[in-house]
């Protein structure tokens, strides 16, 4: 029993602390404040990968720990969400393969996005590039269109997925209103900072404005 307990303790000690890897508010930008989300901690009854729908992501069952938070700024229409997930060995690499496959093969007809209360919508995914992200990262512009409750629905957001070892970081834009260059710039800046957190174990420091 003592040997088993020691092994469990050792394995737990080797798991990266997602709370230390999540973005600091100042890494997003001056004035941004961190807010914890309902259901933002843990892997039970939660979804990490939902790009082009939630189906076809077996890696979800290999998640070990997870934390997702949001960053908002007073009177700003653009926000950021950062999700850091640890996986059982090999799970993060599998997750990256799956999300890349979904980005490249998203169908050109309306699909079930997995979002409660929404009908099937057309999801268009376009890759974008940033040399400051980790090698193998996936950065995308996601446009979702259709009709919801008789009204035209047309929303654009951005997402970046990147991995280091068995840790995956997802950085997502939150916006109100039309797509803007500012949304893309803030998202990529935040994802670049997340890449540094993954490299330095959350000790990347805080950039100056």
Describe the 3D structure.
The chain is α+β, with helices and mostly antiparallel strands. The chain has a single domain (about 15-200), classed as Protein Transport Mog1p, Chain A (3-Layer(aba) Sandwich), CATH 3.40.1000. About 25% of the residues lie in helices and about 35% in strands. A hairpin with a 2-residue loop joins β6 (about 150-165) and β7 (about 165-175). The longest helix is centred in the C-terminal third of the chain and has 20 residues, at about 180-200. About 35% of the residues are buried.
Notable traits:
single chain, 209 residues, alpha+beta, Protein Transport Mog1p, Chain A, 7-stranded antiparallel beta sheet, 5 helices, 33% strand, globular, disordered N terminus
Briefly say what this structure is:
This protein has 209 residues and is an alpha+beta fold.
Helices and strands in order, then pairings?
Layout: H1 2-13, H2 18-21, H3 25-28, E1 33-41, E2 63-72, E3 78-87, H4 91-105, E4 122-127, E5 138-148, E6 151-164, E7 167-175, H5 181-200
Antiparallel strand pairs: 1-2, 2-3, 3-7, 4-5, 5-6, 6-7
User: Which shape, going by the Cα principal axes?
Assistant: globular
Structure class: alpha+beta
What's the N-to-C terminus distance?
Answer: 53 Å
Strand order of the largest sheet: 1-2-3-7-6-5-4
| Strand count | 7
For the record, the count of structural domains works out to 1
CATH architect. name: 3-Layer(aba) Sandwich
């Amino acid at each position: 029993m003592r040997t088993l307990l020691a092994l469990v303790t050792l394995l737990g000690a080797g798991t990266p602390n997602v709370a230390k890897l999540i973005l600091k508010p100042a890494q997003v930008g001056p004035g941004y404040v961190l807010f914890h989300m309902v259901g933002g901690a843990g892997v039970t009854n939660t979804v990490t990968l939902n790009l082009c729908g939630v189906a076809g992501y077996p890696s979800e069952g290999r998640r070990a720990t997870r934390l997702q938070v949001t960053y908002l700024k007073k009177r700003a229409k653009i926000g950021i969400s950062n999700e850091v997930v640890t996986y059982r060995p090999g799970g993060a690499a599998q997750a990256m393969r799956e999300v890349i496959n979904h980005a490249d093969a998203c169908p050109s007809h309306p699909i079930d996005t997995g979002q409660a209360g929404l009908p099937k919508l057309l999801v268009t995914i376009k890759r974008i590039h940033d040399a400051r992200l980790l090698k193998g990262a996936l950065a995308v512009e996601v446009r979702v269109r259709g009709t919801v409750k008789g009204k035209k629905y047309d929303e654009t957001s951005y997402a970046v997925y990147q991995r280091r070892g068995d840790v995956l970081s997802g950085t997502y834009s939150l916006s109100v209103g039309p797509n803007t260059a500012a949304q893309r710039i803030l998202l990529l800046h935040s994802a670049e900072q997340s890449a540094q957190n993954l490299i330095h174990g959350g000790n990347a420091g805080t950039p100056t404005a």
